[in-house]
Amino acid sequence: MPYQEEAQLETQLTNFLQSTGYAKIKLPNETALVENLKTQLFLVNRERLHNRMLTNTELKSVLQHFACRNVFDCAKVLREPFILHRDDKSRVYIHFWEQNAYDANIFQLARQTTVHGNRSNRYDLLLLINGLPLVQIELKRRGVDLKEAFYQIRRYRHDCCAGLYNCLQLFVISNGTDTKYFSNTDHTLAYTDTFYWTDAHNRRIADLSAFASTFLRKQRLWEILTHYMVLNASEKSLMVMRPYQIHACKALVRHALYTAGNGYIWHTTGSGKTLTAFKASKLLSACPCVKKVFLLVDRRDLDMQTCEEFNKLEAGCIDCTDKTDALILQIQNPVKQLIITTIQKMSRAVRLPKYQSCMAAYKKEKLIFIVDECHRSQFGQMHRTIQKYFQNAQYFGFTGTPRFKENQSRDGRSTADIFQTCLHAYLMKDAILDCNVLGFSVEYFHARSSEWGAESRTLQLEGACYNRDRQVAAVAEQILLMHNRKTCNRKYNALFAIESVEMLVKYYDYFRSVSHDLKIAAVFTFHANTDTTHLAETPRDSLERIIADYNRMFACNYTTERYSEYVCDLSRKVKNVQIDILLVVGMFLTGFDSKMLNTLYIDKNMQYHDLLQAYSRTNRVESATKPHGNIVCFRNLKEKTDQAVCLFSKTDCTDTVLRAGYSTYLAKCRQALVELYALAPTPQSVDTFTAKEIKEAFIGAFRTLSKVLICLQSFAEFSFEDSGIAITPRLFQDYKSKYLKIIKETRHCKTCAPASSRSTDFSLEIFHTDTINVEYIMHLIRNVTLTDQEKQEKEIAAIIEKIDQSDVLQLQLKGNLIKGFLTSVLPSLPTGSHIQQAYQAFERQQKERELFCFAQENHISASVVEKEINNFMLSGNIRRSAIIQNIHKSFREKKQLTDKIAMFIREYTLKYE
C-alpha cells in the first residue's frame, strides 16, 4: 500500500461512501447542522407531519428534547417516538429513525465539521442518519499509532460534546492499515473497549477500505445501530456488541426463521454469552411468526449474579423466584413475548396436570427455546420432557465447552446430537488473541516424587508414609506460602477446588488450626439422606460450623436454613475480595464471574469441560497486574489440561492458551534488563535525557521489564535474590521513580503533550502485551516439523495466517521477510537442521540486501545510511542535518529524500532490532 496522508484517506473513504448511497453535505457549523436536521426530519416523517414542514418553534422543541441530556439518555430518546406539539395545537408522533427498514432512512456524510465548546475542534468525518450525527470517524495517516486517533476523540468529547453531538452512538478510528470501532459513553472512554471488525469466521478486517465495505455500508451500519447496541440500565452506559456476538445473533435468527432445525453457539467462557443469548432472544421475540421465546437457564445458575446480568440488559426481565405459578402468569400474558426462566420450572409446567389448560394452547405454536450453558442443563430427562411436549418448537443452545465424543454426557450424547448444527464458534484461542479473556499460567505440584514427570515439583512430606492428613498439611502450607505472590499481595483472590466434601472439611480445619491472617470461607451442597456413618459429623453439621465462623468474621447470622442467602452473600464478598480463599467442591466452578479472581488451586481430578470451566473462573481481563489466570495443580492434570485446551481450541497447539514456564520468563527478564541498561545504565542516567525519542525508548524498555516481572513474581520459585537477575527491588523502584517522573513531565508539558501523548500510551496500564508478536511467531517457526512435508505445509500456512492477523507494528514490518523464509528456505532444509540459525542467516542476508537496494534506488551512499542507522540505534535520534549534507539535490528534493530516509531508518531499525 503506497504512503497516504490523512487527507488522502479521508477523500478515498468519502468517495467510497458516496458510491454506496451516502449523500455528501457541508456542515461548517452547528447552525448548518440544525437546518439540515429540520429538513431531514421532515423528509423521513413526511406522512406523519401531513406534508407540513417543521416550524422554527417546533424545531426548537425537538432540540430541547435533546438539550441537557447525556449520551445514555440521548440513546434512549433516539429509539422512542417523540410527541411533537404543533403550532396549531395538534399532536403527532415523529420518529428519529425508521426501525424496520434501513432504506427508509436518509444517510449523509459531512467532512471537516467545526464544533465549538470549551475549544473549537474539527471532526474528520460525520455520518448522519435523518440529520442526526450518529457516527464520528477520525483518521490518521498511515504509519501513525492508532491510539493517536483514539485520544483525539477522547479530547473532542471532553472539549465539545453536548446537545446534538451527544447523539453520537459510535466512533471509528483508522490509520488506513488498522481500523477499530467503539461506542460512545458518559464514562471515560477506554482503549480496551475498542474492537476490530471481523467476518463470520473471526478473521480480522483491519484495512480501512475493507472495513468500510463491510461495516459502514448503510444496511450493516443501520443493523448495528438498531439491533446490536445495548443500553445498560444499571450502569447508565451505551455499549456496542463485539463482532462475534453480532455474527452469532445473525446466524441464530436466520436459522430460526428460515429452517425448522436446531442449532448451538459455541462461544468460549468469558466472552459474553449471556448478552449474545439475550440479544438473539429479543430479536426473535419481535418476529410476528414466533409466538413466544423462552430463554432457559439452569436453576443452579439463577443466582444473584445471573439476575443482575439480565436486569442490566432489561430491568425486571427475569423472575428470580422458584415458583412455577409465576411462569404460567408470564406465559398467559399476550404482551410478554420473551420469557426468561429456568429449565426446572418449564419442565414442571409441561409435566404437572394443573398447568395443562395453559400449556396446551402452545403445543403446536412456533416457539423458540434458547438454552444457556447447554452442555449441562440440556442433558437429562427435563430436556426430553420439554422437547416431547411442544410439537413445533426449535431449540438453540449456548455453551463455552460443548460435549463431543471425547466428553459426551452420561447417556452418550454430544451437543450436536441434541442441537444439531454449530451456527457460530468463537474459541478460547480467538478470545485470547483478541484480548477478551486471559490465558493461563499452570503450575503442577505433587506429593510423591516418583508419581509424575519432570514438569511438576515435589511437596516435601515428613517420613516415607503418605496419607491424606499429611497431603492436606503439605498442600495447605504450600498455598499459605505462595498465596500473596499469586494474588499480587491480595489485590485478587482465589478458589480452591477440592475432591470431596470430606476432604474440603479436612482442608478447612487445617487452615483454621494454623496461624495466618487470610480470610478463608467454604461452601458446598449437602443432602439430608447422605450416608454419613463413616464420618465424625454430617456434611450439614460441618457446614453449620463453617457458616458460624463466617458469621463471626463478618458479623452476620446465616445458618443452613438460610443457605441460599449465605451463598448469595458469600458470592458478593468473593467478588469484592473480602474473602481471600474460597474452598469449594463443585459450586462456583462454573458460571461464577469475577474480574478480581485470579488464582485457582486444585486438589481434584478434572477433565475436559469441567476442567476448562474451572480454569476459566480466573481468566477475566482486569488490569495490567493480571496478565493471566494462575492455576496451581496438586494433582497430575498436565495431560488432562493439554487435552482440554486442544479439544476446545480446535488445535494441537496449547501455546496460545497456556503461558510459558518460569525459565522462559526468566530469560525474558534478563533480556529486558540488557535493553534497559543499554539505555540507562543507572537510574541517574535518566536525568540526562532530553530528546523525546530516547525518553519514549526508556518508557518502552521499563514497561517491558515491568510486564515480565509481574509474570515472574507469580511463580513460586521466584525471588530477586535467588533468580540471578541483575536487579534488586530497591533498584527497580529507583527506575520506577524515574519512569513516573517522565510520565508526569510529559503530561504537563504543554508544548509537547499532544505529540507525545499520542505516540506513547502514558496511562498507568503499562503492561499490555500483544499475543501475536515476533517472539510468538519465531517460537512457532522453531517448532515447524522437518520430517513430514504435508504437516509442514499446514504449519507454515497457519503461521502465515497468524502473521496476517497481527496488529503488531514490528511484525507487520517483518511479515514479508518471515513469509519469504517460510516459503523459500524452510521447506528445503534437511532433517536435523537448526531452524533458528537458518533464519538468522537468511535475515542477515536480507538485511544487507535491503539496505543496499534502498541506497541504490535513492542515489545515496549505503555507508551514509548505515552510519545513521547505527547512530539512531545508539541515541534514538535521527541526525537530519548529517543526512542533508550527503544529498546533492535541490532544497525541495533534499527535504523529501531526508524524510524518506528518516522513515526508512525508523522502520529498518524496528524491523531488524
What's this model, at a glance?
The chain is an alpha/beta fold and 913 residues long. The chain has 34 helices and 25 strands.
| Order of the strands making up the biggest sheet | 20-19-25-24-21-23-22
| Beta-strand percent range | 5-15%
Uncertain ranges: 449-455, 461-466, 750-771
Percent of residues in helices comes to 40-55%
- Quote the CATH topology of the largest domain: tt1808, chain A
At the first level of CATH, the class of the largest domain is Alpha Beta
Distance between the termini: 23 Å
CATH architecture of the largest domain: Alpha-Beta Complex
**Got a strand count?**
25
Structural class computed from helices and strand pairing:
alpha/beta
Q: The biggest beta sheet, please?
A: 7 strands, parallel
Cα radius of gyration in angstroms: 31 Å
Number of helical regions: 34
Q: Could you say how many structural domains there are in total?
A: 5
Average pLDDT works out at 84
Shape designation: globular
Domain Helicase ATP-binding: 254-402
Subunit structure: The type I restriction/modification system is composed of three polypeptides R, M and S.
Family: Belongs to the HsdR family.
Function: Subunit R is required for both nuclease and ATPase activities, but not for modification.
